[in-house]
Design a protein that fits this description.
Blueprint lengths: L1 H20 L12 E5 L3 H14 L31 H10 L3 H14 L13 H13 L6 H18 L5 H24 L6 E5 L2 H11 L12 E7 L16 E7 L2 E2 L11 E2 H9 L5 H8 L2
Parallel strand pairs: 1-2
Antiparallel strand pairs: 3-4, 4-5, 4-6
Helix pairs in contact: 1-2, 4-6, 5-6, 7-8, 7-10
Length: 299
Amino acid sequence: MQGVREGMALGSWLRDRYVQNCQLLPSTYDPTLVLVRSSRFARTMQTAKAIIRGLYPVQNRQRIHQSVPIFTFTEEAENMFQRTSCSKIAKILEAFRKTPEYLQVFLPIWEQLKPLGVCGAPDRISFLEVHNAISILQNHKLPVPPLLLTMKEQIHHAVTSVLAKDFKPEFLRLSVGRFVNDLLNQMRNKITGTVATKLAIFSAHEVSLAPLQVILGIYKYYPPMGSSMCFELYKEKGWTAKEGNNDAVKHYTVRVLRDREPVALPACGGKVFCPFEEFVGAMSRFAVDNHTYELECQL
């Protein structure tokens, strides 16, 4: 399967980078240093397993049958993408799908899809799901209806250009805000030395990556299958924490890689290496804890 091959390739790249080159991780898998989490979908679980196989092949496990645990959240607790039960999200999407700019782009597409038996009004259809269906069929080398093939670029352009306009601050907070909050907390915990984890892997979805890219100002197109983002936390060379020293955050920077390539962050003044405090400042307005999230969802 294409997804498995892409996952193994990503895992192999992680091994080259963080085991062999940076020597951040040992050559043999250590469960105290690597955290793996996935959404509860079969495809993301398979991707997580493939990444692990590329990062730590069986011969690089402490025991030949040693498994690598993959942690999941319940549907209610999952924070890597928008939750369908969040009524505010539903209202935002419903309102957006009725706007002239949305209908102007997607109404012609809807008309062209009618021969395929598409049911429902254009404001009730998830064209994103149509877009993803084409990608999934092609990646698995399954037949795609000829009409969809001819419309692929048109649908991709529409999804890329129009759906990004739906990513207003409120939508971003309610879609990935809890994950952003967790990400920042994990970085803070690493800086203060309260966690041993050196690499955290999250197997998620394009609806996880797109909002994160918008938040950082690096969104260019809707992420295809196999896309990735890396958040690297760097400590100032030669700096050592001292007891009673509370300015540790001033000695850390963050670098973001999109599809394995470093990117300049508009949200951080165009820097590639973003001072941690600036990174937090850019991300914090989108971060939300679980309690606040539940309150905002009901507004």
